[in-house]
Design brief:
single chain; 294 residues; alpha/beta; 7-stranded mixed sheet; 4-stranded antiparallel sheet; 8 helices; 13 strands; globular; binds zinc ion
């Protein structure tokens, strides 16, 4: 990994140059798009994480271009859990409709479009952007309006009434730029909803280095304070925080629990569990509703 980048050792949120190494890299092999799969089971493996002395933000300061991995990303396992992801989308949209009952909705990092599918059912006019052309094609095959790429995107026609970034902001090395692009496409009275892991949560502190959100694809680790600061820098302000639950198949959850178990305790999930949706909440993610600053 290169140390020569201009991005190196500059806080992605407050631009301070005073960063201290918090945990060295645990990556033993060259990175490839496989490490960036949504369903990557290698918890605890990350690039070197630095803490900003200015604002406290935790970032993988040596990575400066993660986008290259997403454009070629394929994740066969992702669509196996369609039913559960649709359920998750419905739950997120319950938060959206508390603020906006209809209008235009842009989903940034749309994947194969679960959130858009469910938002359409509620009557929203939907569009998504997704950097992985493989995921993007799958969304388009479902008849969804998903553009392959990232923000800013010249094909979009802003402003939008709702903008969502679900588990996106922890994947980018320029969070303030991404959020500024979001500000740029929001209508004056629009709301934004983002979800990201909370590195200060109890689960994160209890599981330490093996916290399931410590993974190669997560390059920025937010707290309530640092996500608020990033929003502020982008001309946005948080108006509500909550703790979203995750909805997964029981089989998927068991296979992931195996990561934490010694080999003699490994679980072998029966296939019937694939059809069972489990909601669980470790209270270790944040859902943030935000608006433009007035
Ligand atoms: Zn900082």
């Amino acid at each position: 990994m290169s140390d020569k980048t201009t991005n190196d050792k500059v806080c992605w949120i407050c631009a301070s140059r005073s960063l201290e190494l918090m945990r060295p890299s645990s990556i033993r092999r060259p990175l490839s798009d496989v490490n960036f799969a949504i369903t990557d089971p290698n918890y605890g493996i990350t690039s070197a994480i630095y803490r900003c002395q200015g604002c406290g933000f935790l970032q993988c300061a040596q990575l400066n271009d993660t986008l290259q991995y997403y454009s070629t990303l394929k994740d066969e396992e992702y669509d196996n859990s369609a039913q559960h992801r649709l359920h998750q989308a419905d739950k997120l949209l319950q938060t959206v409709t508390r603020y906006k009952k209809s209008g235009s909705l842009l989903d940034v990092g749309a994947g194969t479009g679960y959130l858009l599918q469910q938002a359409q059912l509620l009557g929203f006019e939907t569009v998504g952007v997704e950097p992985s052309s493989w995921l993007c094609e799958k969304a388009v095959k479902k008849g969804l309006n998903v553009l392959c790429g990232v923000l800013p995107n010249p094909v979009l026609s802003p402003p939008y009434d709702v903008v969502t970034l679900i588990d996106v902001i922890e994947h980018v090395t320029n969070p303030v730029d991404v959020l500024s692009s979001v500000t740029g496409v929001m209508a004056g009275d629009a709301i934004g909803v983002l979800v990201t892991p909370d590195v200060e949560s109890l689960a994160a502190r209890l599981t330490g280095r093996r916290w399931w959100h410590y993974r190669v694809a997560h390059v920025g680790y937010f707290t309530r304070k640092t996500i608020s600061l990033a929003l502020d820098r982008a001309g946005l302000r948080p108006i509500a925080f909550s703790r979203p639950a995750w909805y997964l198949s029981a089989a998927y959850l068991m296979s992931r629990l195996n990561v934490y178990l010694p080999s003699y305790l490994k679980l072998n999930p029966p296939t019937v569990l694939n059809r069972l949706t489990v909601g669980f909440n470790l209270f270790d993610s944040m859902l943030v509703v935000f608006q433009k600053k007035r």
